[in-house]
Automatic annotation (TrEMBL), chains A, B:
Presence of the UniProt keyword Signal in the record: yes
Positions in coiled-coil regions: none
PROSITE patterns cross-referenced by the UniProt entry: PROKAR_LIPOPROTEIN (PS51257)
Protein name according to UniProt: Alpha/beta hydrolase family protein
Signal peptide extent: 1-23
Length: 362, 362
């Protein structure tokens, strides 16, 4: 456990490192935005599988025989700035989201896509299989419109509906909230962790070494993807949810909360060791209680943060380099479940830039 | 009907106009691509509606009472180059497609997104309501994976499966076909022409005057959108399918084909007149028979092309400015249902650039 003095030192170190920010970052902070200079941009599908009906296709009847369906791929839109840094960033959205997560923020500012393009990183935004533009699924689903946005407002720790948390880093005008709600998009097939991690591993196989940036649900799937891809050179994970994996025999006890019970799972040690070979940083925002709470929207994150700390300890015990940053502990207040699009997202981006620099990954 | 001599004159005129292309366009043709210089890029949702459950939301139980669902909006990703021309292009995909339609082509070349950014147009790509990243729908749907790609290969006039049309403007390697199939994405709710045209009209209300570029199914919805938005200053329509609207009392007879019967519909003359106030150009590709064919994949387009010609005649009879360009008639061979991503898409883009210039819209 960190002492208060330790936290102060950590905060001072971050401040110190921030002094070294590039002119570009300073321009971002002062709001003078130069044009983006993009050497290359485009999109493609990768991964996935093919269903094939038996028989021979008849072009005159167009019956099902002999027809195929390509599905379960991911879709990515990428932009590579001129003079890009060595490792691109692959940004993977969370539950109920698409690549939109990383684009314009709900209140209309630049998101991580633009912020990191301006910092000379190549940026790949993905829609995971069966989500968004990667909608073709090999498995059926029924979509039933279910009003649930007040639940997400709470689970994403914007506040306790209809109240915003005091000092929350989220714009409180109605239009921002509307944009936030409208960026959700449903699954066009069942969520399948193997399908998703296979597709992201296939993306890294195609593009070569890079850095994986995950959020929430993709956090756990991201650990699985590291097991499948040697091209992931680091992971930056915002508020990973379920899916923490430990060496078999070392799985922590279940963690009950008012939002349900969080379970970790075990993998062979040889697999787990892959997570110890790359630097990993995990960020959690504010309004996460340290004692059990009756509010599931918050208690949910109490156990996840606790599990993340145990997980980082396990990785480091085996010689790895995993850090959990609980933002309020370094003096950064008010962040929701979406730190990268919160009002202080440039400060959040600075933390990530600095960390990448510290790890020699820029 | 055009004579052969008339066609020759038309082809010569196009050649003449092409001489005036910008240096940028020449660079595109010779493959020397400079970086894109983007003054602004981002994304947002627009249009749509809200479902609201009665009652009061309980944050501790998170039951359905008092919760909302924002749905039926469109999603757009926009890029504005430095020194952009006055009118941006709003590109609207066709059936089973998303904004991906306008991005990288199946064989990995630049699509209309990049091509027109390089020609200094602002470009808005949309996912229509209940498609892609605009997936939240207020209506339910069941998605059943149905192998159907050989049907689309034929309907999109790539060939007659498994044969490609001779000289088709489509790369014949397996990877290109795979990318082409994987760019399809399903509807996450029923297609609703009013919902869609309302959302696109809302987009134009937000961004101001611009040019609407449609494809296939969005062709007909595009005419409806013109009725709803005075900000649409021109329409460029690639292979519009169903949905041609005529003045009431002047609706052409149904057109039977081996793919089914094409019907037009009537609107009040005052509405129809809105279509006569802006320049409109429609392009159709190759391998469309002029006599009835037993192959539904082709015959489908015979009646659509015929209906488009009747429609342009009606618009022009009322003082409008509508042109139907059947590409083979001006000497451009081999185009599929997706001319803007075909192998000759720079030539197709030149036609559009020239047309916009002729109409004073550049």
């Amino acid at each position: 456990m960190k002492t208060r003095f330790g936290k102060l030192i950590a905060a001072l170190m971050l401040t110190f490192v921030s002094v070294g920010l590039s002119a570009c970052s300073v321009a971002q902070h002062t709001g003078k935005l130069e044009p983006l200079v993009i050497q290359q941009q485009g999109s493609f599908a990768v991964g996935g599988t093919v269903l094939t009906n038996p028989g021979r296709f008849d072009p005159f009847k167009m019956t099902p025989e002999g027809q195929t369906l390509h599905g379960d791929h991911l879709y990515t839109f990428y932009q590579i700035p001129t003079n890009a840094r060595k490792f691109p960033l692959v940004m993977w959205h969370g539950y109920g989201q698409s690549a939109k997560t990383w684009e314009t923020t709900p209140d209309g500012r630049e998101g991580f896509q633009n912020i990191f393009l301006r910092r000379d990183y190549g940026v790949y935004l993905i829609d995971q299989p069966r989500r968004g533009r990667a909608g073709r699924s090999t498995q059926p689903v029924t979509l039933t419109p279910t009003p649930d946005e007040q639940k997400w407002f709470d689970i994403f720790r914007v506040g306790i509906w209809p109240e915003y948390f005091p000092g929350v880093q989220f714009a409180q005008d109605p239009e921002s909230l509307e944009q936030y709600f409208r960026q959700m998009t449903p699954d066009t097939g069942p969520i399948d962790i193997d399908v998703n991690s296979d597709a992201v591993a296939a993306l890294f196989a195609k593009i070569g070494p890079g850095i994986l940036v995950t959020h929430s649900h993709s956090g756990g799937m991201g650990w699985q993807t590291v097991l499948k891809s040697p091209n992931i050179r680091a992971v930056v994970s915002y508020e990973p949810g379920s899916g923490f994996i430990f060496p078999e025999g070392e799985v922590p006890e279940d963690m009950p909360s008012s939002a349900g019970t969080l379970k970790a799972s075990g993998v062979p040690l040889a697999d787990f060791m892959k997570l110890t070979k790359i630097p990993i940083v995990i960020y959690y925002g504010d309004n996460i209680p340290d004692q059990p709470s009756e509010n599931p929207g918050q208690d949910n994150w109490r156990v996840r943060l606790a599990m993340a700390k145990l997980w980082a300890d396990a990785v480091n015990r085996y010689g790895g380099d995993a850090t959990v940053v609980h933002l309020p502990e370094i003096g950064i207040q008010g962040n929701t479940h979406f730190p990268f699009s919160d009002l202080n997202n440039l400060e959040i981006a600075d933390l990530m830039s600095d960390w990448l620099a510290q790890k020699g990954l820029d």
